[in-house]
Structures are given as C-alpha cells and as structure tokens.
Design brief:
The protein contains ten helices and 13 strands. With 329 residues, it is α/β, with parallel strands linked by helices. Strands 6-5-4-7-8-11 form a six-stranded mixed beta sheet, sandwiched between helices. It has a three-stranded antiparallel beta sheet with strand order 1-2-13.
Length: 329
C-alpha cells in the first residue's frame, strides 16, 4: 500500500502552478539582436536552442511539483491488516518461592516440571493470548499477554528460583495477574494460579485479590502442587553430593479453594507431574472467544523517489542555462 504521511501538503501545488502561469504570461522577450533590415530574417524560424529554452520554465515547474510531493512524505505501508480468531486471554501466575525446589515431581524439581508443562500448554494454544506472572515475596510480570509463542517461552525459560526474595505472596501474585487482564476485551479472561505453599507475605490478602478478580469478571483456576506428607528436598549442607532431606510443606488448600469459588473457577491438586499435565489439559478445554488484533505495521519512506529526480532536473536546468541555452546579454 502506498500513502502520503502529510497529504495536505499537496495543496501547495495549487499556488505553485498558478504562479508559474502568471509569470509565463508576464514574461516579455527582449531583443537579443539588432539589424537594420529585419525583412531578411523573415523566413528564418526559431532554432533548436530557442525552442529548447522555451521548455526551461516547464522544467522548473516540474521540479517544484516533485518537491511538493516529496514534502508530503510518500511512503509504503507493509502488513497493515487485521486478524480475527478464536481464543481467550490467560495469565499464568507461577510460584517461584524456594519450596518449589522440592523433588517430589520427577524427573526434576517442582518448578522445572511446572515450566515444562506450561510450555507444552502454551505451544498448544496458538490462538490464545497468554501472559506470565511470577511471584515469591513480590510479584512481577515476566511476559505480558502475547500471541508470540517464541517470546513467551523464551521468558518462561528464564524463570528460576531466586529471581525474587523468598516468600509466598499469593495475594500479590494474583492481583498482578488480574491487573494484566484489566484492559482485555476478550469475553473470557482467566488466571491459572500455581503454588505449593500458603500466603506468608502480608502485603495484600489473597481474599482481596480474589474479590478484585471477581469484580472484573476474571475466572481463577488455582492449582496446588506437591505430595502429601514428607517430600524430598535438597540439603544445602551437602549440595555437592546431591543429598536430600525429608521435609513437610503445608499447602493452604482451603485458601485456594476459596479463591476459585469466589471467581467462578475450579481448584485442582497435583501430586505428581502426570496429574499436573492432566490439570492443564483440562484447562485447555476452556471455552473460546473471538479476538481481533492488528498485525505489526511498518513504513518505508519514499521521499527520495521524488526529491532525487527534482534535484537532478534542477542541476540540468542550471547547466543548460549557464552553457548551451545561455541567453545573450
């Protein structure tokens, strides 16, 4: 597509053309040769130089018109189109507190297993906009809502325990995820909250965040991860040997159930990797909604297409006027 960035500049062509015709009509040829008997030259017509000289004013007019078009900034528009499809807006709120190092989810710790399953979930929903929020003692948006799977999975790969000071701020993580959906126009907006602990950072109560989600029409699916009872956990005193110790990590299931209930979602408990994968498969069957998005647009300026020939013609005019078409005094 071709367009002008400043189309109103084209109106400058009107006074330019008008001035050219006025100057043309006022122009009076002055005698360049005096002779006592002009009858001898009656049959002599204008030569090539005279005819060519008469074209110079038109050449200058063309130069001015080309410059006017160049000032209007002609440009090419690429990939300007809208895409419609089916999908929902989903934000995954992922717990990255230290307890996610527990090794009850094989073949790796809870966080790495969760990341692998989330990755498969993301790649399987090509028509949904998905974002990622991580939280521990604080929360931040790791990736905003996007259809670009490569960017999202790239940000997901960078997630690791220790990015944030340890703690489990469930309320803050949920509120941050809900805030990413605040301006979404999708008819279905969902948060998947995945955690293995209980809220222990009194910055924002999870119940308050759940009420916020409910008021905005955001459905929250809560996923509690971890086996019941004692689970293996890396023993930092013997990190080199890979030894583990058995610890018990309480999960506040009552809170997660309440969040899901308030927002119209569901609560799931995953005690191993297979169960967690099945939970995401269940969420994958959510209803869809239509979305409309505009593909990225960029411009290529084409001012040079008009400015360059204008300057070239101006140079030709100057050379001809100073040499071959030079007027005699």
């Amino acid at each position: 597509m071709f367009e002008l960035a400043r189309p109103l500049v084209l109106f400058l062509a009107v006074p330019v053309v008008a001035a050219a015709f006025i100057l043309r009509r006022r122009r009076v040829d002055t005698a360049v040769l005096r002779h006592s008997h002009l009858a001898l030259m009656a049959d002599a017509g204008p030569g090539l130089r005279v005819r060519m000289r008469s074209l110079l004013p038109w050449l200058r007019l063309v130069v001015l018109l080309l410059l006017v078009v160049a000032l209007a900034r002609p440009r090419e528009v690429h990939n300007l189109h809208e895409v419609e499809g089916e999908g929902i807006d989903i934000v995954v709120a992922l717990d990255i507190s230290g307890s996610m190092r527990a090794l009850d989810f094989q073949p790796d710790n809870r966080l790495e297993v969760a990341k692998s399953i989330i990755r498969d979930f993301v790649l399987g929903r090509g028509e949904d906009r998905i974002g990622l929020v991580v939280f521990a003692s604080r929360a931040f948006t790791q990736c905003p809502l996007t259809l670009d799977r490569s960017i999202l999975t790239g940000f997901l790969d960078e997630v690791q325990i220790g990015l944030i000071e340890d703690g489990t701020a469930i309320g803050l993580g949920l509120a941050t995820a809900v805030n990413r959906l605040r301006h979404s126009e999708a008819t279905s907006r969902t948060v998947i909250l995945l955690t293995d602990g209980s809220n222990n950072v009194p910055t924002l109560e999870p119940e308050t965040a759940a009420e916020l989600a409910s008021s905005l029409g955001v459905r929250v699916y809560t996923v509690g991860v971890g086996k019941h009872g004692l689970v293996p956990f890396p023993d930092d005193r013997f990190a080199a040997s890979g030894r583990t110790r058995m610890v018990e990590m309480p999960l506040d299931e009552e809170l997660l159930q309440e969040i899901a209930k308030v927002t119209g979602g569901s609560y799931f408990r995953a005690v191993d990797a297979e169960a967690l994968a099945q939970i995401f498969a269940t969420i994958d069957a959510l209803e869809t909604s239509r979305y409309r998005t505009t593909v990225t647009t960029w411009y290529e300026e084409r001012m040079a297409w008009f400015a360059s020939p204008a300057l070239l013609l101006l140079l030709v005019d100057a050379l001809l006027g100073a040499a071959w078409l030079r007027r005699l005094p």
